[in-house]
């Protein structure tokens, strides 16, 4: 397994991975028509990923298997001048691995590549217990904040202290 920074040429493979991992992670949590609709917008999503990789303040890491196929990714940013100065500066925007890689430590490796042991925050879809359990093992806890996202209610989790991560995924 290899973890590396994303490059603009990865946009198509990353789009396909992103579509697949949403289907795997959110089946039963998100309406099927939403998941199908995402696939209908594949071409636009490829361009969107290319733009995000090339020009945003986000950083992205990809996980490749021994054959070079993408099996996971993460996206994160360091926020500047955010609305809530009580939050950590790092925000984990996404962390997904293929279901076939659940429990292998790949999620932990991607999280470490993205934010290390640093304080950070993220938003998790309400009801996504697998993700909640993963983030709790890595020192994140709910802080009571919620927001309505495009696919449902999201709850904020925050890790405030360094060094709380434990190897598990």
In a nutshell, what does this entry contain?
The protein has 169 residues and is an alpha+beta fold.
Spatial arrangement of strands, main beta sheet = 1-2-3-4-5-7-6
- What is the CATH first-level class name? Alpha Beta
How many domains make up the 3D coordinates? 1
User: What distance separates the N and C termini?
Assistant: 15 Å
* Secondary-structure element series: EHHHEEEHEHEE
- Cα-atom Rg, whole angstroms? 15 Å
Q: What is the average per-residue confidence, as pLDDT, rounded to a whole number?
A: 90
Domain N-acetyltransferase: 1-162
Protein name: GNAT family N-acetyltransferase
GO molecular function, one term: acyltransferase activity
InterPro entries: Acyl_CoA_acyltransferase (IPR016181), GNAT_dom (IPR000182)
């Amino acid at each position: 397994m290899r973890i590396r920074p994303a490059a603009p040429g990865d946009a198509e493979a990353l789009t396909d991975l992103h579509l697949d991992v949403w289907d795997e992670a959110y089946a039963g949590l998100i309406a099927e028509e939403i998941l199908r609709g995402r696939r209908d917008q594949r071409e636009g999503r490829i361009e969107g990923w290319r733009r995000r990789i090339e020009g945003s303040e986000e950083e992205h890491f990809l996980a490749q298997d021994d054959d070079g196929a993408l099996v996971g990714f993460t996206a994160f940013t360091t926020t500047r001048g955010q609305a809530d100065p009580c939050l950590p500066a790092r925000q984990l925007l996404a962390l997904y691995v293929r279901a076939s890689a659940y429990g292998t430590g790949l999620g932990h490796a991607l999280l470490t590549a993205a934010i290390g042991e640093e304080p950070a925050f993220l938003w998790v879809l309400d009801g996504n217990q697998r993700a909640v359990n993963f983030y709790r093992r890595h020192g994140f806890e709910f802080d009571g904040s919620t927001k309505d996202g495009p696919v449902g209610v999201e709850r904020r989790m925050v890790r405030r202290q360094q060094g709380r991560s434990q190897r598990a995924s």
